[in-house]
Amino acid sequence: MARQARQNRPQLVVVLADDSGSMRGPKAEAATMGLREMIMECQSRGPAGVDRSYFRLLLISFETLASVVPHCDMRPIREIDPETIQLSAMGGSTNLTAALDIAYDRLLAHIAEIEKHPERDRHPLPIVLIFSDGEHNEGFDPRPVAERIKALAIDGESVVIAAAGIGLSGGFGEMVLRTIASPECYVDIRNVSQLSAFISSVGSSGASGSKAVSSVIKKLQP
Amino acid sequence: MSEGDATDRYLARIEHLIASLRASGRLLVGDGHARTEACAVALHSSIGPEGSEKTPVNQDHGLVWINDSADPTKPTWITAAADGLTSAFWSERAAALAALAAARAILEKPGIDAADCLDAARFALADYLDDLREDLDATRPATQVPFRSTWQYMLDRGAILQTTLTVAWEFEGRLALVVVGDGGALLEVEGGREIVSACDLETERVNALNPRGDFDDEPAVVISRPIDRPYRLALFTDGIGRGLGVDSLALWDRLEALGGDNPPRSFIEAVCRDEPQSYDDNLTLILIDALRPR
Fold first, then answer.
1. I need a surface site. Which of A134, A184, B70, B280 has the fewest CB within 10 A?
2. What pLDDT does residue A165 have?
3. Given CB atoms, is B73 within the 8 Å cutoff of chain A?
4. The dihedral of CA A83, A89, A90, A95: what is its sign?
């Protein structure tokens, strides 16, 4: 039986958004648009009713530090006004680890909830999206905590990290993000419209598990 | 236009379509059974097992129209089963509009091909969507979609009014059938049983008719072939298909064992009672029993 989001078993979408200074301009605008579209698409899923969200959103922005966007802290998607989402990219370095640490803490608790859920075998797994245009240059190595996230599992099915490297072709930054990503869940972003599409398509896909997520990502490849 | 007006306009369309179908034959919608000299038909559509986490309304729509005057210029019967996508808004309205509009298009032109039939259904969705687009702010159903940007997005991108559609009819000794999405269809003729359309048990992603025409809504199955009576045809939505699993042809034996005037209703009541986990969805089953010519 496939894992599917329903109002009583919504999928948790975790987005780790690079809000460092290098994202300023078209990249931050494209990411903002992608996040808004993702929310609107997720809100349109499921039967009518504000209280019938099929998704919950945890949005973490990171630069030198990381923080949870206050009104997007595991909140039902239909309670979030898409217009309030705005990446500012005002400055700072790139600390992937800080964002992943927060995500791991929240996911640990969320997985424990799913373990006890009466429809655990059909509950969708959370999906983690991360996008960045820079090399991790602040804090500890992000890869160990990424491995811990990917080790979180329900009935042998692991949490998936989908990663997008923005203009990182061939560099160390790409290598790190590729390692962070689950198998076949890394995408090389070469223009801003691809970034919007990655966020909106993968985040609203409802895909559960690496095979389903990689299938969505493959459709994004030029 | 208020939300109430939007609903009123939907209901007016439905009533008009139903009236036009009833003007020239007998129409069963959602539940019932009937018999003519040419066929015995039965259908039942249900929200699904009690207590399951479902939409508050049945997003399936099933209908059968029968030619009760034996008019040779009209089809012997027409049937449609539609499953409004849970992943899109107001899908139950899409299911009803598409099924009824397709049936009316067939009634008006029994030799219609699959593409034109689907166009008629698609147009019914697009026409209603155009109505909704008028006076966008006033139309926005604030109690259901709280944010203007989301409502605008749904109208612009077509994340609204999406449905699978399976339509079949018999005219001048030919059986025609078209399937968009994952509706199931089984055929039993003398000497054989055939899965005409199988539900995809592996994926949640299905093709669907939609008002904008910018999604993948190509039909999965298109059939038009001579057919000899007697034969039986069963159509069903994916809730039945997933419950049946790979051995869907076993449905024939189960229906025969149940018997009665309305085997689809008996079947759905039985699975809701005895197998609620397997049939945890909206459920629609239609049975056409084309009788041996006298």
1. B70
2. 94
3. no
4. positive
Q: What is the predicted pLDDT for the residue at A44?
A: 85
Distance of CA B198 to the CA centre of its chain: 15
Please report the residues numbered 15 through 44 in chain A whose beta carbons come closer than 8 angstroms to any beta carbon of chain B.
Answer: 36-37, 39-41, 43-44
**pLDDT mean across residues, chain B:** 89
Task: Look at residue B153 in the predicted model and tell me its pLDDT.
Answer: 85
Q: What is the distance between the alpha carbons of residues A37 and A83, in angstroms, rounded to a whole number?
A: 10
Q: Return the HEC string of chain A.
A: CCCCCECCECEEEEEEEECCHHHCCHHHHHHHHHHHHHHHHHHHCCCCCCCCCCEEEEEEEECCCEEEEEEEEEEEHHHCCHHHCCCCCCCCCCCHHHHHHHHHHHHHHHHHHHHHCCCCCCCCCCEEEEEECCCCCCCCCCHHHHHHHHHCEECCEECEEEEEEECCCCCHHHHHHHHHCCCCCEEEECCHHHHHHHHHHHHCCCCCCHHHHHHHHHCCCC
Contact across the interface for A37 and B143, Cβ inside 8 Å:
no
Closest chain B residue to the Cα of A39, Cα to Cα: B150
Cβ of A44 within 8 Å of Cβ of B149? The answer is no
Any chain A CB within 8 A of the CB of B154? yes
Minimal C-alpha gap between A81 and chain B (Å): 6
CB proximity A3 to B under 8 Å: no
Q: Hey, is the C-beta of B149 within 8 angstroms of any chain A C-beta?
A: yes
Q: Which of B35-39, B47-51, B70-74, B104-108 has the lowest mean pLDDT?
A: B47-51
Give the separation between CA B230 and CA B175, rounded to whole angstroms: 12
Q: Give the C-alpha separation, B220 to B179, whole Å.
A: 6
Residue B79 pLDDT > 90: yes
Mean pLDDT of A170-189: 92
pLDDT in tens, A49-97: 788 899 999 999 999 999 999 999 999 999 999 999 999 888 788 899 9
At A56, give phi and psi (nearest 5°): -125, 150
Positive/negative CA dihedral, A128, A134, A137, A138: negative
Contact (CB, 8 A) for B287 and B43:
yes
The residue among B59, B93, B149, B157 with the most chain A CBs within 10 A of its CB, best to mutate, is B149
Contacting residues of A for B87, CB less than 8 Å apart: 45-46, 206
pLDDT digits (tens, 9 = 90+) for A3-53: 888 888 999 999 999 999 999 999 999 999 999 999 999 998 877 778 889
Contacts of A209 in chain B (CB under 8 A): none
